[in-house]
Known about the structure:
Blueprint: E1 3-6, H1 19-29, H2 34-54, E2 60-62, H3 70-77, H4 93-102, E3 118-120, E4 127-129, E5 132-133, H5 145-155, E6 160-165, H6 167-173, E7 175-176, H7 187-203, E8 208-212, H8 222-235, E9 241-245, H9 255-260, E10 265-269, H10 277-283, E11 289-295, H11 305-318, E12 322-327, H12 346-349, H13 355-369, H14 375-390, H15 397-404, H16 417-428, H17 445-456, H18 461-482, H19 499-502, E13 506-509, E14 516-519, E15 522-524, E16 528-534, H20 541-549, E17 556-560, H21 562-567, H22 577-597, E18 602-606, H23 621-636, E19 644-649, H24 658-663, E20 668-671, H25 679-687, E21 692-695, H26 708-719, H27 740-760
Parallel strand pairs: 1-12, 2-6, 5-7, 6-8, 8-9, 9-10, 10-11, 11-12, 17-18, 18-19, 19-20, 20-21
Antiparallel strand pairs: 3-4, 13-16, 14-15
Helix pairs in contact: 1-2, 11-13, 17-18, 22-23, 26-27
Amino acid sequence: MKNVHTHILGFPRIGARRELKTALEAFWRGDASAAALEQTGAALRARHWDLQAKAGLAFVTVGDFAFYDQVANHIQLFGCEPERFGFDGADSELVRYFAMARGERGCCGAHAGHALEMTKWFDTNYHYLVPEFSPETRFALACERLFAEVAQAQALGHAVKASLIGPLTFLWLGKEKAADFDRLDLLERLLPAYCAVLARLKALGVEWVQLDEPILGLDLPPRWRNAFEPAYWLLGQSGLKLMLATYFSPLEENLSLAARLPVAGLHIDGIRARHELASVADWLALPKVLSVGIIDGRNIWRTDLDRAISVLRPLLEKRGGALWLAPSCSLLHVPFSLEGEDGLEPETRSWLAFASEKLGELQTLQLALGGGDAEAALATSRAASASRAASAHVHNDAVAARVQALAPGADERSSPFATRVQRQQARFDLPAYPTTTIGSFPQTAAIRAARAAFKRGELDADDYAAAMHAEIGYAVARQEALGLDVLVHGEAERNDMVEYFGEQLAGFAFTRNGWVQSYGSRCVKPPVIVGDVARPQPMTVAWTAYAQSLTARPMKGMLTGPITILQWSFVRDDQPRSLTALQIALAIRDEVADLQAAGIGIIQIDEPALREGLPLRRALWSDYLAWATRAFRVTASVADDSTQVHTHMCYAQFNDILADIAALDADVITIETSRSDMELLDAFGNYRYPNQIGPGVYDIHSPAVPDTAAIVRLLEKAARVIPPAQLWVNPDCGLKTRAWPETEAALANMVAAARQMRLAA
Length: 761
């Protein structure tokens, strides 16, 4: 008798129509109460659990929901909110939560200090809030939210599997805020808090608890590896069944460690670690449960169910007829459902599966392996695979020929930076500490309404262009009034920095509601790369040239780089990512050439996702960095010496790839540094970064307006690390999500700070 169970590690929390985003932003504006926000959260959880139950999952997963971020949830759960926020017991849990996330107290209350640093969740585009640890950090069970959610699920009649970030991963994700201190030293203090949580869950009648330890897929220092067995021996005393969950990477040298830990089950990423499944099945002693992540939790392609069954059947036999099936990781990283996606070309739609459809795929696999009749679903899967393999939407001979003909030196600028910088200074005559912004300006309600009306056909092309020209004119005039040195057109016409370009490139498909959470209420709608990529016509030239016609100051052309387009899209899985990246690079290269021909002398090619794409295992870094940096250089190398190429990167650690960032050979790089108090800049200084650099001087994710003195302090700190002649002055990131009043106030202070630095030089 086959004993096949299905479960998931997590589900998208934002809702089918981004209901959570709407509720959050209403609360932050002060238009809705905390009770209303909580009510929305409860309704979304109930709806999502119902979907899981109807798909026949053995348990609904509880603990994956968060109003902003799951790591922030754990900071509150374990009572380790940083002391610097000055919480005195008077603030509610939600107020403290959003103060940590957004750098403000309450909806519109007093400033509570800079928000917690954000960085990427492993190699995804999801951003988590970084815990801050010091020798004084203490832990205690300090929040009831998880237990209330368990009780809610149970009251609805669901069997519950609770989900937590494991203790080693929680510490790994944090940052030390004191010298000569190792956050792993806090493990002995943290484990009793975990034990208290497990005891409460057991008292509530929970049988299984999922503990996520994705760091087992990393190159761990020996001390961290050695901490797992004693930690899990202690946690195992809870009497609960613990499911250790790993994902995003093979286990490699940690395989035997994970298999022998005193837990009741082990989840393996069957997409990224498929080659390890047989070994894990051998190493994992019965009666421990093996959970196989056989459905891709990070991409949207329909599963080849026949292939999945061929992988699973031998494992099922090895495990004595018992197996758990799941997506490879949380479904947080894919859109909610294909329902309502009638705008997709029918053939393309047949190739896709979002979170809700992946639940159905699990159900089909369970039925097929258990001896049930799954033939109709399997036939649909086979038809989709055959259609995609033969489709004319996928292959473009002209693109293939262009890639094949690319010359070896096509990724090199004409002259070295030392020559280029002189020609650029002669052309632009910029002052010391030149000021600029990263690209976008506030996307007002009027901008969004005009764009929506244009898409619906209610606004013709001429009227839409006139509306966008008015917005561009306003942005240019405001920048000139503020005294910025290098201007941007504000990107009023752009919905998203990747989607905008994908909509104009061949080889892409788009969804109506394919939203994925990036952080907090920020959602993105990744394009789907279905085939070979090419640029049929210019994408940004007319808008940028119009903006340049309004001012004598330099106007930056704004482009998204090939690696970021790759990383922030759902990428085809039928060819190497490196080849897709090179196709995108050639398309963006054509845009660089056309901007330059139109007289645009400064071109920014954003690559915030370069570090994100880095494989989690160091052994794979050199290959990735070689093709990723080459793709950027192919894009930029068409620029003349007097054309200044900028790039922007944010919310990632760069210390270990600085040589590769330098190899991009961008004339100017701008980076996010304000949340780390310029800490990230130290690595660039120690490396003696050769080109120019703009460290972000204020956090654009907070509505708080920095004063001039605060910006001067950061610039003075930067000037002690980087020679002042190399420094630019800019915000951390684009200003799309901010409002005009706070934007102008912050930029005015930024310009004033730059002028102070010039006077002091």
